[in-house]
Write a structure and sequence with these properties.
It contains 3 helices and 7 strands. By secondary structure, it is an alpha+beta fold. Strands 1-2-3-7-6-5-4 form a 7-stranded antiparallel sheet, with helices on one face.
Length: about 190
């Protein structure tokens, strides 16, 4: 009986020592978990973005502080002609990306496909207008059709999300292409 009396405290000491090291492992594991999750999130975001944007993503992230939303689906990106994303503007609160059929496109009508923008919302921004479009996640966008004169303008789809106004424009674009692009930004497939 005396030996059992001495074993209980010894077992308790061993148990507490084991639990202490186990707890340290759990804490170390928990500390590393957010880093792993962030890394996985960044990897999944990169795979969800259309390859046309990959050359400019790093510079865009360095220059802007607003959330960057780029579509997975881009109209005309799987055609015969290569498509290029050209960073027109990138500041702390705004970005503009030109989509063109040549790497040196400056917005000229022959090489231009469209534009993608994001800008922090300010009180001076006008109210969104156009045909309301239910996108996903309860977000409403506004479609404005193109007009043609000497040249055709962009059809646009604009929406506001988390303090940022986003817009996708396609030269003489159609409602279905713009809606599909916007939905691939908000809830990639």
């Amino acid at each position: 009986m005396k030996t059992l009396k001495n074993i209980y405290p010894l077992c308790g000491l061993v148990f507490l020592t084991y639990m202490g090291s186990f707890q340290d492992e759990i804490i170390a594991s928990a500390k590393n978990q957010p880093q792993i999750m962030v890394k996985q999130e960044l990897q999944s975001q990169n795979t969800q973005v259309n390859p046309v944007f990959k050359p400019i993503i790093s510079e865009l992230k360095q220059k802007t502080q607003i959330k960057i939303l780029l579509p997975q689906y881009v109209s005309e990106s799987d055609g015969e002609n290569p498509l290029y994303a050209i960073m027109e503007t990138a500041t702390k609160n705004k970005y503009e990306i030109l989509l063109g059929f040549s790497p040196d496109c400056t917005g000229g009508t022959a090489c231009r496909l469209g534009i993608i923008t994001g800008e922090a919302i300010t009180p001076k921004m006008p109210r969104l207008t156009g045909k309301s479009v239910l996108l996903t996640k309860g977000i409403t966008g506004y479609f404005v059709d193109f007009r043609c004169g000497a040249n055709c303008s962009d059809a646009t789809l604009t929406w506001r999300q988390n303090g940022v106004q986003y817009m996708i424009g396609l030269k003489a674009g159609n409602y279905n292409s713009l809606t599909k692009m916007a939905k691939s930004v908000i809830a990639p497939f």
